[in-house]
Amino acid sequence: MQAIQVGLLGIGTVGSGTFNVLRRNQEEIKRRAGRGIEIVMVADLDTQRARQIVGPDVQVVADAREVIANPDIEIVVELIGGYGVARTLVLEAIAAGKHVVTANKALLAVHGTEIFEAAQKKGVMVAFEAAVAGGIPIIKALREGLTANRIQWLAGIINGTTNFILSEMRDKGLDFDVALKEAQRLGYAEADPTFDIEGIDAAHKATLMSAIAFGIPVQFDRAYVEGITQLAAADIQYAEQLGYRIKLLGMSKRREGEGVELRVHPTLIPARRLIANVEGAMNAVLVQGDAVGATLHYGKGAGSEPTASAVIADLVDVTRLATSDPQHRVPHLAFQPGALRHVQVLPIEQVITSYYLRLRVKDETGVLAQVTRILADAGISINAVLQRGTGSAAQNAHETDLIILTHNALEGSMNAALARLQQLPAVLAPIVRIRKEELA
Amino acid sequence: MQAIQVGLLGIGTVGSGTFNVLRRNQEEIKRRAGRGIEIVMVADLDTQRARQIVGPDVQVVADAREVIANPDIEIVVELIGGYGVARTLVLEAIAAGKHVVTANKALLAVHGTEIFEAAQKKGVMVAFEAAVAGGIPIIKALREGLTANRIQWLAGIINGTTNFILSEMRDKGLDFDVALKEAQRLGYAEADPTFDIEGIDAAHKATLMSAIAFGIPVQFDRAYVEGITQLAAADIQYAEQLGYRIKLLGMSKRREGEGVELRVHPTLIPARRLIANVEGAMNAVLVQGDAVGATLHYGKGAGSEPTASAVIADLVDVTRLATSDPQHRVPHLAFQPGALRHVQVLPIEQVITSYYLRLRVKDETGVLAQVTRILADAGISINAVLQRGTGSAAQNAHETDLIILTHNALEGSMNAALARLQQLPAVLAPIVRIRKEELA
User: Fold this and answer.
1) In this prediction, what percent of chain B has a pLDDT beyond 90?
2) What residue ranges define each of the domains in chain A, with the CATH number in brackets?
3) Residue A363 and residue A426: Cα distance in Å, rounded?
4) Those residues with Cβ within 8 angstroms of residue B48's Cβ, 6 or more apart along the chain or in another chain
5) What pLDDT is stored for residue A389 in this prediction?
6) Helix (H, G, I), strand (E, B) or coil at A146
7) For A49-61, what is each residue's pLDDT tens digit?
């Protein structure tokens, strides 16, 4: 059987990894797939660089539409990134009857509904294992491996840049700005790190996983997104003393009969959990299913060849299924298109979680009583209290840090309580509030 | 579309879990699969118990052959276990044109080649996600998710009983016999625990993963198998002091141009590795691929519903592919049947690994020199030495434990060196040798 012909749109880091791995392991991949998979055409604005990567046997063009127009090409791999031209090209590829493999989480998290509908109508596949957690086959696990389960929640460390920064902050006691510079110097953070450090990249990925896990449309615009730029080294240390690590967690949770929580924010998690020990740029996703219990999926979440591993897994899947009846394929979002439920993403005020609070207060009798009273009035119960002086004792002899861990509470109630607490004369600085998840 | 009809052979722990989860999540599973999946007939010798589990709407029979003979049943789920009657029934089901889903690692590790060939000839599928690591979708990850990779090695904690015992030994300083009794009391070990504690169960699973990872036939009879019954609490403590944990690891490694290592034995692994922190009855498999690097897959390795999760994932896969062209399905061992390579499993003497040695020696000058000379003569280089007196100092004032960590060496060379070391007059007891893997 002739090799299936593939066209590549964009040959940067992931594209060159895909080309190289596919060539290096072509024999092994063919032994698995039963059919060769060949990249025959590459579109990239930098044709000279593209030519250097692919050598003389592959056609290189500057215009992506030449790839889409090529009738021999059955699968188009989109590795351009972003929402703009990538969206247009993916829709054009679908319209031309091509299957699409993409690593573009931003595109699918924002325009997924439109793209999946177009693909469904045309009877082609859109595969996106590489869009979440690099080489970890987490999309396949959610779509197929755990398909028996009613997924209850999932929580992931799905952004390597922020996890690297948080690891550095904890290990070396660094402040955020210093750790960010270190990450940039080592290539773990981009010159403009906004998407990573503000949690947007993690939210794109959490949005996709949430849709697959719960059978709902992608709803990135409803996600609550909070990055790590406001995290202080002091809170990481206090968390440590209380037996917790702070991670940027992407979470989605089913709330029976109410909706779905979808949120990205710094989160205290118990240090003894395996996922709390995922360090540096590594990724991990924890999935809680009603039958299987908890499973953890760990590996490199980015990089040329780890991401290529996921792109090629999709190419093999699509190759196997290309000749099959569309109704027997695994649907894009794991649920049959007609079976997606329009469950709402709950606003952050309706989220239920537990909290870490740090209050800089006057060190005088009665303050703790005032604070706990306000929390009790709001129906928030306290799990643990830690009182510590920080910094130079001489300088701040009359100030202290009051750390409070709460039990589960409604975010709206917490907001109201925080507004009241902030008004107390004994509270000397803006209150720090970090969400906490026990993950069990 | 009418629900696909399934027959169950054996309704014990996993069978009842499968029945219950399938019924409980039937709507969600149908939304995913696009077609209902229905258990319509159950064969079990204890028909009364079976009837209690499945209720009045499912046909219950004592004779498994009635299930196989039922023309409406497209998938037979074999949950009887063992090599005997299960083998006959699986082969008969295949001959009758039924797809087979099984959790029977023993059967496939020993008779897999015969069974997969029969299925191939008949054009039916044999799916066995539940045979390895319970609910963790590791078979799917190896067959599909990591398909781009040349797998270099895999290492798994794939027997919950022994991992529970080892966790207890380490946590509480218990001896093996005491920890085993505790495990039996809590239901983590069977009355006859031989298959688990002697490493046979882990070897069945390692054999299956090895075949899928490397595209070789199942070769259980060539696996090296060593259990945990000889492990002393002292070695677990010494390992801890050196920064290692002892786990029963199932390993398989590609040795380019030479063959494949396939072995199960107690293994020192660095405590800082995530997999070293897999405690209690949990399972985890670490896979090293050339493109993706290391991925870890963690979860419950046994139990009614976790295993049912895997059985049902297979049912959904088979349901989706039942109408497809056999040549486009993922083959049983992930590689196309004609593309399996007859690579040999290397005998244990040709395995390359590093070692932990404990020698009970006379506490006198010159002993360390004698020991290191013999190791050097065998070409074995030393990584670390630890010398500790144990027990009551008064009683054993003239004895000491000499702990040696070596670099990588050929097992055959180590055997020869150990034979010489054992002859030294200064060596007072049988030498303890435990293999060590850095897993990086």
Assistant:
1) 93
2) 4-134+305-339 (3.40.50.720), 138-299 (3.30.360.10), 348-436 (3.30.70.260)
3) 8
4) none
5) 60
6) coil
7) 999 999 999 999 9
- Burial degree of A177 (CB within 10 A; 0-12, 13-18, 19+): exposed
Here the tokens at position A223 are 């996600």
Question: Which chain B residue's Cα is nearest to A142?
Answer: B137
**pLDDT, tens digit (0-9, with 9 covering 90-100), for B265-316:** 999 999 999 999 999 999 999 999 999 999 999 999 999 999 999 999 999 9
**Minimal Cβ distance to B31: which of A135, A294, A339:** A339
Here the tokens at position B262 are 């396939």
pLDDT-derived band of residue A1, with 50, 70 and 90 as boundaries? Answer: confident
Q: How confident is the model at residue B156, as a pLDDT?
A: 98
DSSP E strands in B290-417: the ranges are: 293-300, 352-362, 382-388, 399-406, 409-410
Of A26-35, A224-233, A324-333, B179-188, the poorest mean pLDDT is in A324-333
- Verify whether the Cβ–Cβ distance B148 to A25 is below 8 Å: yes
Give residue A373's pLDDT: 97
CA-nearest residue to B137 within chain A is A145
Say what the pLDDT of residue B290 is.
98
Mean pLDDT of A215-240: 96
Q: Picking from A205-214, A246-255, B391-400, which range would have the lowest pLDDT averaged per residue?
A: B391-400
Long-range CB contact pairs, A417-423, < 8 A, 24+: A417/A374, A417/A375, A417/A377, A417/A378, A417/A380, A418/A357, A420/A374, A420/A378, A421/A359, A421/A371, A421/A374, A421/A375
Note whether B170 and B247 are within 8 A (CB).
no
User: Which of B32, B74, B286, B316 to mutate against chain A (most A CBs within 10 Å)?
Assistant: B32
Q: How many CB pairs under 8 A join A and B?
A: 232
Angstrom distance (rounded) from CA A94 to CA A127: 12
Q: Is B283 helix (H, G, I), strand (E, B) or coil?
A: strand
Are residues A298 and B298, on separate chains, in Cβ contact within 8 Å? yes
| B292 interaction partners in chain A (CB closer than 8 Å) | 134-136, 299-300, 305-306, 309-310
- B13 annotated among ligand-binding-site residues: yes
The ipTM, to two decimals, is 0.95
Separation between Cα atoms, residue A60 and residue A49, nearest integer Å: 10
Residues of A in contact with B273 (CB under 8 A): none
Determine the average pLDDT of the residues in B102-131: 97
Place of tokens 């290189």: A60
Q: Which of B30, B140, B181, B205 is catalytic?
A: B205
The C-alpha of B363 sits at a distance from chain A's nearest C-alpha, in angstroms, of: 40
* Catalytic residue from among A98, A140, A205, A300: A205
Nearest CA in chain A to B324: A324
